Structures
1.
Amino acid sequence: MLEASLPGTRPPAPRQERALKQSSSRGPRWSLALVFVVVTVVYECCPIKGVGDLFWSLPTVFSVIREGNADLNEYQDAFHYYPGAVEVIDGKYRNFFPVGSALLALGPIWVFNGGVNLVAPVAEHFPKLNKGVSNWKKNFARVGNIDASFFFTTEMVLASLFMGLAAVFIQLMASELLPWRWALVVTGVFAFCSSVWSTATRDLGQHGPSVLMLSIALWLLVRARRVPSSAAWAGLFVGLSYVMRPTNSLSVIVLSLLVAIRYRRFFLAYCGMGLLVAATFFAYNWSVYSAILPPYFQAGRIAPQSGALMAEALAGNLVSPARGLFIYSPIFLLSLYGLFLELRDKSHRVEAAAFGLILVLHWLTVSSFPHWWAGHSYGPRYMTDMTPYLCYFLVPVVDRLRMAASSPRPVWRRGFVLTFVLLAGLSVFTHLRGATSSAVVNWNGLPLDVDTHPSRLWDFGDIAFLRGLSKP
């Protein structure tokens, strides 16, 4: 990896600063715009739309804009679409799942809806535009017999935009450590070789917003090697990552310790940013639940399993043919090599240990869920949130790839490049299938429901991403 000095709490000396600028070509701004456009367009063109747990996030946003409240009382006649995701608090119906996705979608939806209202008078003179405007206004106002497909499509569009933005921050992170053209390799893995493509972009669930917040936080922490004050701003996004998904409490704890060790001068500012998020979140929860945490965030939802079941879950989240991280994203096998390289580098060892610890703790946590396979989903859904960290550990691997490309030893060069390309190609294939084929999604229920027959999770004769190719 192209190294930047880690001066602790002091800014780099002028000579060091010049060296950092020379060694870290972060690329032109148009390259970031290109990343966003290309990644988002590819995501938007994929036909599969997820039916996630957070179906009621968009209706919650609509309710806030329309009526100024976050309850779903006006949608009671439509609860049959997803009754399990609604809870009753003091006579008011609310979305049971985390409010983070709705919070993230509120701004874009408010702006878009305002724009629709502005152009509506003009749209009357343009039939095609008027049709789109009328469709939006009709579905925005409808509360009874809602059009579920409208919500699925809108979710997918928003999720794709958010993940396109996350790809930009991964590019920024990698460009801090690699020449920007080589950083594109890391960004490409993030965008097309992971569950970001096949899961986080298919609906407005918890994973996409979680990945976005962690990607921004990771970029700021890597940038802090060059601009230490960036560590303070990371507190805002680390805190928001918890609002998006409670398992990110692990990142909150470990990254806070990292900042306390590496950037003590900015630790209070970091905590201030995080407390701003926490105070707002806790105040909202108290106003709704009379508790600082909603039921979904309670630790009791994690139920430690017996030794045999836990061992199966631990193995399953890595190598199950239905949910294994290294089966669906074999490129992340190289992240293990990257972790090894980072731990050997004294200047990056603390960060490597912190990010690696988060990966291990997350793996242990999601493996403690009785439903460790994440119900009806595709690939390693529960590991999606860890994609930014896994991509961080690919940075030193890509740097080795860069050196291999100019190595005078042809065997080393060809072998390393070929291995990387092969693993990346297999990863693209599996997630392309998840984003474009209904057959792979239907695997969960055919021929038997995976939730009632979890032995299917280990059936190498019926692998989900091969559905529609090798088996009807």
2.
Amino acid sequence: MGVYGLVALLVKLDDMGFYLVQYAQSITGLMSGILTKTGDLLIASLPKIIRFLEFVGTLAMLLVGGGMYVHNIALIHDGLHFMPIMLANLFAGLIVGFVILFILHFAKKQNKT
């Protein structure tokens, strides 16, 4: 299935839920209730899944970005050697991210004046 298949599944998750709810209205009995509940669950779960992926993706980007600095700049590597490597990568990613954010904020302020 791979990553692209998983993304396609996520994109269509709410569509599948809407289809199940709509189909459940055309039938009767126990199956109608099961399909309605399943469809509602799919529809309701998508925003939660997206928020979770947003958090995990941000964390991964900070770890990877910080890791590039930790592993390629000896001064940073030596300065953070006392930390577990994953924590050092996260710390470096956060620091670099905040520095870039500060620079962009300051540059934006300068352009307004």
